[in-house]
Design brief:
By secondary structure, the protein is mainly alpha-helical. It is built from nine helices and three strands, in the order H-H-H-H-H-H-H-E-H-E-H-E. Keywords: Lyase, Pyridoxal phosphate.
Length: 278
């Protein structure tokens, strides 16, 4: 009798569980609406054995695919380098391309949907920035090549408030950077596997180069504990700054007061097992 009662109770168990689940989902729907219901169902599915790993694998694949599409640019050029064109386009055509690229950017900042990267690009303050830029621009080339200076100004004014830190929001800047890196790789006999980034000036470029050589030494030459760089005494101060930031020692080689070139014998004698860059 006891056994029969236990069997009868167990037969009702799935029905009880299903009823509780239905009641829970109805309660969620009444309190949080359809969005809350879908979220609750999704969370329940993730609790099933093995579903977490399946979802994680699928999500990773989708993210990788999305990032590849976002950063590789035009499908026509994927897998191959873009060389510097032998012949440029006209100023008018270039201006048209800039306008089309700007129109392709998402204006999320003006819609209140961008939490960082830029400020508003409309209003009198924005116009004042443009006028200030014009006032303090280098006009030395304008007399010789007015068209060139004009298109450079137009580019800077057009993309003044875009930020390359988010290439997904500003695809035009992503396109510019990808093409510059590709053209540079082509010029230096690289291949399509070459990667890079555009820096904001000479100092940052030097800092990134020094950091790269230091990191490469750490990865490929773990015996290097006190990395050093051999350089003429007349190097750019940014090298000194980079050495300070990245814990690199610079061995300075004097330069000739007449030829302004370093003593190569002294230069060679300074090289040791911890040297990472000449």
């Amino acid at each position: 009798m006891v056994f029969s009662a236990a069997v009868c109770a167990l037969s009702w168990f799935p029905t009880i569980i299903a009823s509780l689940v239905v009641v829970h989902f109805v309660d969620v729907f009444l309190k949080n609406g359809a969005a809350g219901l879908f979220k609750s169902i999704a969370n329940a599915i993730l609790l099933l054995p093995g579903m977490g790993a399946v979802v994680k694998s699928f999500t990773k694949k989708e993210i990788v695919c999305f990032m590849e599409k976002s950063f590789t640019g035009d499908k026509k050029t994927q897998g191959q380098l873009i060389p510097i064109p032998e012949k440029g386009v006209s100023i008018d055509e270039l201006q048209q391309q800039l306008t089309e690229l700007k129109d392709g950017n998402k204006d999320l900042s003006e819609e209140g949907r961008l939490f960082a990267y830029v400020y508003t690009s409309h209003g009198p303050r924005f116009q004042l920035q443009i006028e200030a830029f014009k006032m303090f621009s280098d006009l030395s080339l304008e007399l010789e090549n007015e068209a060139h200076v004009s298109i450079v100004k137009s580019y800077l004014e057009t993309f003044m408030h875009d930020n390359a830190l988010n290439p997904l929001v500003f695809p035009a800047l992503r396109k510019f950077e990808n093409e510059v890196v590709s053209m540079t790789a082509s010029m230096l006999h690289g291949d399509a596997a070459v990667v890079g980034s555009v820096t904001s000036g000479g100092t940052e470029s030097i800092l990134m180069a020094m950091k790269t050589y230091r990191d490469m030494a750490r990865a490929l030459r773990p015996s290097v504990k006190n990395p050093n760089v051999i350089a003429p005494a007349t190097i750019h101060p940014a090298f000194e700054k980079a050495a300070h930031y990245f814990n690199i020692k610079i061995k300075h080689v004097p330069v000739s007061q007449t030829t302004f070139t370093p003593d190569m014998n002294r230069y060679e004698s300074e090289i040791d097992s911890d040297t990472i860059l000449l």
